[in-house]
Amino acid sequence: MSDNKGVRRVNEDLARERANCSFDVREITFLLDGGENNTITRKKIEDFTLTDELLSDKVPDECLSPKEKYENAVRKSCLFGKLVKDKLLEFGGLETFGPNSFVLRRIADAFFKEISPLLLHLGMFVPTILGQCTAEQQSEWLPRALSMQVIGTYAQTELGHGTFIRGLETTATYDPETEEFVLHSPTLSSFKWWAGGLGKTVNHCIVVAQLHTKGQCHGTHPFIVQIRDLETHQPLPGIKVGEIGPKLGFNTADNGFLGFDKYRIPRMNMMMKNAQILKDGTYVKLDRHGKMTYGTMVFIRVMVVNEVAFNLAKAATIAVRYSAVRRQSEKKPGEPEPQILDYVTQQHKLFICIATAHALQLTSDWLWRTFSGVVTDIKHGKTDSLPEFHALSSCLKAISTSDAALLIEQCRHSCGGHGYMMSSNLPLIYSFVTATRTYEGDYTVLLLQTARFLIKAWEQAEAGKPLTPTVSYLTKYFKDGRVPWDSTSEGIVNAAYGVAAGKISACVKSIRNRVKTGLSYEDAWDLTTVQLVAAAEAHCRAVICDVYRSEAVRLTEKSSPNVRAVMRQLTTLYLHYWALERIGDLLRYSAVSEEDVVALQQKYEELLALIRPDAVGLVDAFDIRDEILNSTLGAYDGRVYERLMEEALKSPLNAEPVNRSFHMYLKPLMQGKL
Ligand SMILES: CCCCCCCCCC/C=C\C/C=C/C(=O)SCCNC(=O)CCNC(=O)[C@H](O)C(C)(C)COP(=O)(O)OP(=O)(O)OC[C@H]1O[C@@H](n2cnc3c(N)ncnc32)[C@H](O)[C@@H]1OP(=O)(O)O
Ligand SMILES: Cc1cc2nc3c(=O)[nH]c(=O)nc-3n(C[C@H](O)[C@H](O)[C@H](O)COP(=O)(O)OP(=O)(O)OC[C@H]3O[C@@H](n4cnc5c(N)ncnc54)[C@H](O)[C@@H]3O)c2cc1C
């Protein structure tokens, strides 16, 4: 793939890697894009959106003050928004790209090194209107939101509570006299905290509050609340709003705080798809399942799996290209310095990143299809598939974000000192992805949600009741005993399910034993949570291994033999990597022997050697343009050292030969005059 900038000198090592690649890179790009036509459309859109005039920053973003950074991000958000509105609609509107094509999401990364202050508007405000409003409410709010007259965010978390939604303190009390809700923040800990764009950007937000009517509390519900004047942008009376301050990342997202002093909103600003308040204050519950108001969170959890797969692909592209360009040390005395990609330990660090990016992307595509089925069911009034989907999306969100964050950090380690430079973009990619492990449901908390479902499934299996698809394996592994070992890919997937079943079984025993000693079920559960998290993790790994293996086989059915071979090598590498990582579990729950472990390790090392010649081709196949990668180390042409120097020279400290602090402090210190 070209860097879309015409012919330029490419680093010789990278050029040689590309010449030696065993497969046609475009073939894998098409597979990852979901077909050649999608790739063509994506590239067309990238070509006319990613123009220098829109993207160029004279001073690197990271050298700006927090205020300047925010203002630059707002400027670019508006340019980006206008571009989407004016130009991209020529391609047939957003629907053309399909919600799962994520073209716009990729392009956005070229505009924002960190994050757009409008991300929450498109990412959560609009989806919540779609998911939580009646048709009548949608016709009022959607056109205003899509035309950006109303700019919104999602304010659920408070200073005192994020995880435990039922513990939120903000109240919305219905007043039938005026047909209004009175929003109030009774304590400091009830202040909304974290919502992206809330600090300075938005004029509306979705507020999740405890609904009170006729003297009764009906739990948390979402409301649309105007917080700033549309003309002056001043906070409205009764609203206290601001920005929460610097963070590890997300520094252009103006995450904010918000408090209400008996602030009134019309009755119809309650999002009424799942529950309603009649004019006289009567509460009408329409949600038979009970958790439909958590729908936006489920949607974002699904989106996040794709999000982290893409970010891991970016990090892997940077680290693999850099490792082909960088030469260091010597393998044998007197030999020329090898490319660091030739060190087996470097391959061990990086090839799992490529394989995981594939595994997560294919799993995310599969999850999206499953989600679409659940949404269709819900439209037809069926909510039976929701508990299983909640369990599935919770664990996939937890594991994908955690794995991606760890592996992105590993990519940074693999780039040595230069990986620590902001201009490598690895620190920013990491700071963005590590937040995904926390937001939209913390890692541990979500795995415990999955564990709840798994324990129930185990009990159903014991009772001889039918199980839903993602846990149907429990019936097979129900009887005690070790899972037979078979070192084929299918065998490793089966063993992963066996491990998950073994761990779930151990949790059930542990809880029951504790209950027998006189503990309450809740206490027995609490004491078993370390094991429960591990069981949910094992279940999720088995699902990812299974989906990755079967989806890769399905997708490559019509591929050329070389593409099929390299894709097979990657899936096998992934399965072997995790078998070796979890060897203790396999020894405990499967019939794997010492010789099998030696064979697994040997095969894993053979796979590293087989993948080595195709490594650069594999990251080129992600086809991530230089503007989107934003990295001195990872650009297509491999001009690493030139770019590092060019970026260093842009530092404001290099604008003058002597900084004034010399005269103000250093010189007086040197002369003993301070
Ligand atoms: C253009 C598009 C671009 C898209 C880009 C995407 C990226 C966007 C990036 C944006 C960046 C940042 C945004 C961040 C936003 C936020 O973080 S918003 C705040 C999110 N907050 C959370 O996620 C809180 C997590 N907590 C919870 O979800 C719940 O409180 C928790 C599930 C932990 C517990 O809830 P409870 O009400 O207490 O329920 P519990 O008693 O434990 O369980 C009761 C019962 O309900 C079942 N349950 C729970 N949740 C769900 C659900 N969502 N769906 C279905 N069922 C659910 C649970 O399993 C129990 O069932 P059981 O049968 O009784 O066991
Ligand atoms: C970058 C970023 C952006 C965000 N954007 C938004 C936004 O736009 N809108 C919004 O509403 N919110 C937003 N959030 C908030 C986010 O959703 C919460 O921070 C997240 O859900 C975690 O909740 P918490 O902060 O209350 O963590 P806590 O629940 O306090 O977690 C702290 C620790 O306690 C543990 N813990 C908590 N409960 C349990 C339990 N039941 N069992 C075992 N362990 C437990 C956790 O595992 C964790 O280790 C954002 C957060 C971040 C970091």
UniProtKB/TrEMBL annotation:
The active site is at E440. It is found in: Peroxisome. Keywords: FAD, Fatty acid metabolism, Flavoprotein, Lipid metabolism, Oxidoreductase, Peroxisome. InterPro entries: ACOX_C_alpha1, Acyl-CoA_ox_N, Acyl-CoA_Oxase/DH_mid-dom_sf, Acyl-CoA_oxidase, Acyl-CoA_oxidase_C, AcylCo_DH-like_C, AcylCoA_DH/ox_N_sf, AcylCoA_DH/oxidase_NM_dom_sf. It holds the Pfam family Acyl-CoA_ox_N. GO terms for biological process: fatty acid beta-oxidation using acyl-CoA oxidase; lipid homeostasis. GO terms for cellular component: peroxisome. Its cofactor is FAD. This is Acyl-coenzyme A oxidase. It comes from Manduca sexta.
